[in-house]
Amino acid sequence: MNLIFSLDNILISTIIACIMKIILKNRKAFFDYEIIEKFEAGIELKGCEVKSLRAGKANFKDAYCEVRNYEIFLIGMRIEPYKEGSYNNPDSERDRKLLLHKSEIIKINNKINERGLSLIPLNIYLTAKQKIKLEIALAKGKRQYEKREKIKKEDLKLEIAYQTKIRKIKF
Fold this sequence. Notes:
Radius of gyration: 20 Å
Helix content: 40-55%
Strand order of the largest sheet: 1-8-9-2-7-5-4
Largest sheet: 7 strands, antiparallel
Number of strands: 9
Strand content: 25-35%
Order of helices and strands: HEHEHEEEEEHEEH
Distance between the termini: 37 Å
Oligomer: single chain
């Protein structure tokens, strides 16, 4: 039963990966934060921002989300102006409104105020219907020693894999 369930999960995840195309991934978020809960949100984009995103001309550096008057905004994400766009391209670092249900926004706001969590962007991707979506997460910041422990564990895994590879070759 568990084997079938895990195979179904693997199949579903591979199908979803085939359907959606990841445009931009925030790798640093997984290192700096402990992800608690994920949400999918639409983004309010203007003009040529969609074409710039599809071309991969965006940057998550120092980006975060903020709740204002029961609306969530993405702050600090840079989308480069589209080359073939007109002279009135929108500002590349403007705040962008995220599209979520009101109940989800209230839930997120309560968790942020209760536990002191952060709301960070994880991925931007294209869906099967060619809509641009943003994956955001409630996250708790890691301390420096937790990051060091993670690096040590990864190095140890690599070393063990290397040693087992060498043993297989010798025999």
